[in-house]
Amino acid sequence: MNQNLYAQFEQRFPHDDGAPAMVLPGGRLYTYGQLKSESARYARLLTSLGAQPGDRIAVQVEKSASAVFLYLGALRAGCVFVPMNPAYQRGELAHLLGDARPHVFVVRPQAAAQGRVLAAAAGVPHVLELGDDGEGEIAQAAARQVPRSAIAQRSADDLAAILYTSGTTGRPKGAMLTHRNLGVGVSTLHRFWAFEPGDVLLHILPIYHFHGLFVALHCALWNGSAMRFEPRFDAARAVALLSSSTVCMGVPTHYVRMLGEPGLDVAACRGMRLFVSGSAPLLPDTFNAFRRRSGHAILERYGMTEGGMFASNPYLGERRCGTVGRALPGVSLRVVDAGGASAAPGETGQIQVRGANVFAGYWRLPEKTSEEHTVDGFFKTGDLGRLSEDGYLTIVGRDKDLVISGGLNVYPKEIEEVIDALPGVRESAVIGLPHPDFGEAVVAVVVRDTSIDCTAVPQAADVVGAVKASLAAFKVPKTVHFVEELPRNAMGKVQKNLLRERFASGRGASAAKNTRKKRQHDPA
Q1: Which residues form a coiled coil (predicted)?
Q2: Structural domains in the chain, sorted by start
């Protein structure tokens, strides 16, 4: 049996080729029949360029229907799809092209000149253009092809895609994802989130990232659903489209911005079945405000590039605010202490996972792959968390974001929760900066709430006082900075590495310093 992921999708497509697959702004509609024929044309084009099963197809383009056809065409041809963030610049692209060594590189017309130079340096044979509107050189070339009806034979362990990690702690690494990894991942979510005939997905995410490509798009294709396929997120438009959708997947920023739209209410969401949030922590204020306004509790889940989804709040049952739910079916999830022993319920430790959805390893980095796995096959996520008695997982932060002050571990999430609860605070981020006595000093970066109905204006003393009243003294910020906004990546994750760089270099005035004698925080 052919384990090619595309073959698995096509078996589940609607029997009626006229069933809608993607509805674009302006009303343009692509059917499932067109999805099959257009992806077949792209598959034929790639093979005409000499691409063989296992060859990489690197793609740095914006979201469009043609980009979906290209992705599915690459799968049909047995190639390995390598999506790249359109925001990547010369240095990042040079590394990725040199590392992935693709046979074809598809790039936006405005970046084509640079792309050709970098591709030539990396030995990439073919560079083709695809515009933000889905038109361009590769679309025209595909239109001239006779559709390739054959689907390349692939085993479950063959690679389907390589996704590069963000590289916040070094150069990006390519996570190798097999047809089994992706097939198991989408089939699990399809069942767990109770997809049903007639579901319509409001697709507001980019498709160079796991969330938009391998969660949102895959779930719709697996279900044979129609998608409201939005090239970019617009809060007002998203709210307007809720009435003709049943499922929405987004990042916390999307839900915050939808809350800013007066049209968001129970009536606008009357046909909605499910709202899912991921890629970054969902603040309790956002969760609660959205439930009040929409009548829906957002379902928060947990995953990462190296394996997709690991845990989820239930479709039926308690969606516990501040947690990412329990381990998904087929996933083994544990929290361990520094010595590798299982942490007790409620204790913070490192999150490790194992399952058929977990990636095959890092591309061309066998030593790194081995280093990031335990002897019994668990992947070390690098995230810190704690499990409740009944198995709900709370994410505390990244292992690399752990602050060690005076020899004591400080988990930023714990402090951020206290600060975020203060009147007049919109959100916060806690980081560690070098300190001559303590090794690292706890530093809070705070965004004030500037909304019209917010009269509180918190000062540094308020922040320090609130933490001091709630937590141990060694967790109290020694410095508080106020900023207009926190830096985030395209998926809404706060980039604490940028905050560390900014404030370690002295840019931005300190609002206050909280000085103490060193002996107060030395471990016994």
Answers
A1: none
A2: 5-232 (3.40.50.12780), 235-297 (3.40.50.12820), 315-399 (2.30.38.10), 402-521 (3.30.300.30)
224: left (phi over 0), alpha (psi -120 to 50) or beta: left
- The predicted-structure confidence for 89-113, as pLDDT tens digits, reads as follows 888 899 999 999 999 999 999 999 9
> C-alpha angle 509/511/515, rounded to 5°?
115
Please tell me the distance from the alpha carbon of residue 427 to that of residue 445, in angstroms, as a whole number. 9
Question: Residue 216 half-sphere exposure, CB side, CA atoms within 13 Å?
Answer: 32
Query: What size, in residues, is the chain?
Result: 524
Count Cβ atoms below 10 Å from residue 116 Cβ, excluding itself: 15
What is the predicted pLDDT for the residue at 280?
80
pTM of the predicted model as reported, rounded to 2 decimal places: 0.85
CA distance 177 to 445: 36
Instruction: Name the 3-class secondary structure at 168.
Output: coil
pLDDT digits (tens, 9 = 90+) for 14-37: 999 999 999 999 999 999 999 999
Among all chains, which residue has been given the structure tokens 């190639």? Answer: 79
3-state SS, residue 224 = coil
